[in-house]
């Protein structure tokens, strides 16, 4: 969007970098930072003189699954942004479990910001910084401008979530979890397909049997047992698809996972609102 000319033509190229942070083992914070440094070397060694913007994404403190859903920590968000600007290497010392403790399980995705920071030099200035936490996720904008060999090996990548089991109401999506619940996650992911979605609404039992869902899995789906599905291994982003198809909002699912009424859950938010991933035209 920033590269569009008035006539709507592109003035440059976009090179996306996909970083998996939903299923563990995931890249460590240090690995992301080191990757940014390697990216910087590649850019600087390019024969042409280029203007390059590194854009990082990922919500600040938030958790959207389990009884801990709705967790936010704005003081940590402010500390993270400050350290990212002035002491980025200190952020590479934190494990995923420590990021989850401070900023929520899904909030650990901020490690992707370290790729951007690693690609910059130490001599930078902050042009703009703002953050706001409405219902679930702290949304931040940080613009840094430049003023003027790393060891990324990990002997045990799962060490990054060591201690995560001490966080009540938090269920990491690991390779083992993914394998156990693969069939059910695949079944729910297919709700993006119109025909599958239609049959799910009008012929759910037969559809679940065709996909060889176990009796336990069928009971959890038909009974809308949100927290049981999370504990079983359904990733939240498939769960919210099912909720949207059934006309349930995300806050309804969050409240149910926390064992609260909608009124109780909404009272804990700065902004009480209803939303889902459902298309408005459906």
Automatic annotation (TrEMBL):
<dbReference type="InterPro" id="IPR011986">
    <property type="entry name" value="Xdiol_dOase_LigA"/>
</dbReference>
<feature type="domain" description="Extradiol ring-cleavage dioxygenase class III enzyme subunit B">
    <location>
        <begin position="3"/>
        <end position="140"/>
    </location>
</feature>
<dbReference type="GO" id="GO:0008198">
    <property type="term" value="F:ferrous iron binding"/>
</dbReference>
<keyword id="KW-0223">Dioxygenase</keyword>
<protein>
    <submittedName>
        <fullName>Gallate dioxygenase</fullName>
        <ecNumber>1.13.11.57</ecNumber>
    </submittedName>
</protein>
<feature type="domain" description="Extradiol ring-cleavage dioxygenase LigAB LigA subunit">
    <location>
        <begin position="184"/>
        <end position="269"/>
    </location>
</feature>
<dbReference type="Pfam" id="PF02900">
    <property type="entry name" value="LigB"/>
</dbReference>
<keyword id="KW-0560">Oxidoreductase</keyword>
<dbReference type="InterPro" id="IPR004183">
    <property type="entry name" value="Xdiol_dOase_suB"/>
</dbReference>
<dbReference type="InterPro" id="IPR036622">
    <property type="entry name" value="LigA_sf"/>
</dbReference>
<dbReference type="Pfam" id="PF07746">
    <property type="entry name" value="LigA"/>
</dbReference>
<dbReference type="GO" id="GO:0036238">
    <property type="term" value="F:gallate dioxygenase activity"/>
</dbReference>
């Amino acid at each position: 969007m920033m590269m569009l000319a008035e006539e709507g033509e592109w003035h440059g190229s976009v090179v996306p970098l996909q970083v998996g942070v939903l299923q563990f083992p995931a890249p460590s914070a240090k690995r992301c930072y080191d990757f940014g440094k390697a990216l910087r070397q590649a850019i600087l060694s390019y024969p042409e003189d280029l203007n390059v913007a590194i854009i990082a994404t990922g919500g600040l403190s938030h958790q959207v699954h389990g009884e801990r859903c709705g967790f936010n920590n704005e003081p940590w968000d402010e500390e993270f942004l400050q350290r990212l600007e002035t002491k980025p290497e200190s952020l590479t010392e934190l494990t995923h479990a420590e990021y989850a403790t401070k900023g929520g399980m899904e909030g650990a995705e901020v490690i992707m910001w370290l790729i951007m920071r690693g690609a910059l030099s130490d001599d930078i200035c902050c042009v703009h910084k703002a953050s706001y936490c409405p219902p679930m996720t702290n949304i931040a904008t940080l613009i840094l401008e430049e003023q003027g060999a790393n060891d990324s090996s990990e002997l045990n990548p799962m060490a990054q979530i060591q201690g995560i089991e001490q966080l009540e109401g938090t269920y990491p999506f690991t390779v083992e979890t993914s394998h156990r619940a693969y069939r059910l996650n695949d079944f729910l992911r297919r709700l993006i397909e119109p025909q599958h979605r239609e049959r799910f609404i009008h012929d759910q039992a037969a559809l679940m049997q065709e996909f060889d869902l176990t009796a336990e899995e069928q009971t959890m789906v038909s009974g809308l047992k949100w927290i049981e599905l999370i504990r079983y291994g359904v990733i939240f982003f498939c769960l919210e698809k099912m909720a949207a198809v059934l006309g349930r909002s995300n806050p309804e699912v969050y409240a149910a996972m926390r064992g609260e009424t909608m009124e109780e859950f909404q009272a804990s938010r700065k902004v009480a609102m209803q939303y889902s991933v459902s298309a408005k035209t459906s």
